[in-house]
Amino acid sequence: MSNDTHTLTGHDYLSDEVWLLERQRIFRSGWLLAGAGQRLQRGNRTVVDLAGESVLLTRDLDGALHAFANVCRHRGARLCEAHDASSQGSLMCPYHAWTYALDGALIATPHLDDTEVDRSTLPLWQYHLREWHGLVFVSLNPDPPQFDAWLQEHAAEMLRFERFGLEQLVVVASTRCDIAANWKIVIENYQECLHCTRVHPELVDIVPLYRTGWVTDRERPDGGVAVTRSKESSPYRAEAPSLPGATELDHTSYYGATVFPNGFVDVTDPSVVISTLYPDGPNRTVMTMDFLFHADTLAAPGFDPQPIIDFNVLVGNQDNTVCEMVHRGVASLAFDHGVLTPKDEYVIWFTEHYRRTMGAT
After folding, report:
1. Could you give the domains of the chain?
2. How many whole angstroms separate alpha carbon 155 and alpha carbon 347?
3. Average pLDDT estimate for 340-350
4. Chain segment 158-201, per-residue pLDDT in tens
């Protein structure tokens, strides 16, 4: 492979014009990861920003998940802010107190009776939602692509994780960080490990293969890499019940998968980490990390999930620092593009996949 294999350009990373095209062609056409569904208990709601569209996620009292535009049908007021959380079983607009059930039905219009407002015709505007083994996906497209076919095209690596019973896990902790970098830079960083020895000394201490710069073991067809559990520095050294469906090999391995365009799934028995990216323009990316474990693991004598959580937060913060450094660098007048090497194979995959999805610009 020659140096003719290029990264995206500075314009691709920084341009408002490109960002507007991405919103239309990528974020509003297919499916987007919205996080781990286990975070939402019955009667609860949360707000996520999907590339500039505020989306209200609810789990009604029957346990069904819904995705709605976060806007009242009366005069267009925003119903909930990102910091709002409630278990009251309904949604009340702060403007005129129009009230909706968690399934989107309009159930109250103060000072207006049935002769003045036909509530049955004014449910919340709804977006398409699919739950895949506990992961929530939302489409802003009125006519979205068929979900299973989309998953095969944009997140095929994740299909290997069906055996782990992700839907049986519980969210133990969630974190949120603001990254001053373009969302594509964050994904590209995840796709390679040429930076790992320098940036992640703690990580390469327990995943020795990463010292070579390769992301996957060339001798393993399952995409996994060996994890060293004997070191005192390893947060995964504890003996605990494994994930459902995990084999002896799985117990000593790490697996990662990219969900294009906005997520990562990392499996290191006995934990699963769901990272969801919420791009906010070309210069900022919000990322949440949900940490999932099986109830049997959590109940095991002496098991403490905190070292695993702390370790992943540490590695994530290290990645965020270098992503912000790259974002500042590609703003240089001199930067037209970077070059990609054979060990950047997954960055190459992402770049080509991005270009195909975007089409001509």
Report:
1. 1-28+157-361 (3.90.380.10), 31-144 (2.102.10.10)
2. 15
3. 96
4. 999 999 999 999 999 999 999 999 999 999 999 999 999 999 99
Are 172 and 291 in contact by the 8 Å Cβ rule? The answer is: yes
Phi, psi of 308, deg, nearest 5: -70, -45
| pLDDT greater than 70 at residue 361 | no
Q: Please say whether the beta carbons of 279 and 303 come within 8 A.
A: no
Residue 49: is it exposed, middle or buried by C-beta count within 10 angstroms (0-12/13-18/19+)? middle
SS3 239: coil
What residue type is assigned to position 115 of the chain? T
Is residue 306 a contact partner of residue 279, using CB atoms and an 8 Å limit?
no
DSSP 339: B
Integer-rounded Cα radius of gyration of the chain:
22
Q: pTM of the full predicted structure?
A: 0.94
Q: Contact at 8 Å (CB) between 165 and 245?
A: yes
Rounded Cα gap, residues 340 and 344, in angstroms: 6
Which residues lie closer than 8 Å to 212 by C-beta, 6 or more apart? none
Residue 158 and residue 147: Cα distance in Å, rounded? 14
Residue pLDDT, tens place only, 8-17: 999 999 999 9
- Note the pLDDT tens digit of each residue in 111-157: 999 999 999 999 999 999 999 999 999 999 999 999 999 999 999 99
Strands (E), the chain: 32-36, 44-50, 53-59, 65-69, 90-92, 99-101, 106-108, 126-132, 135-139, 170-179, 225-226, 253-259, 263-268, 271-279, 285-293
Spatial distance between the Cα atoms of 293 and 318, rounded to a whole number of angstroms: 24
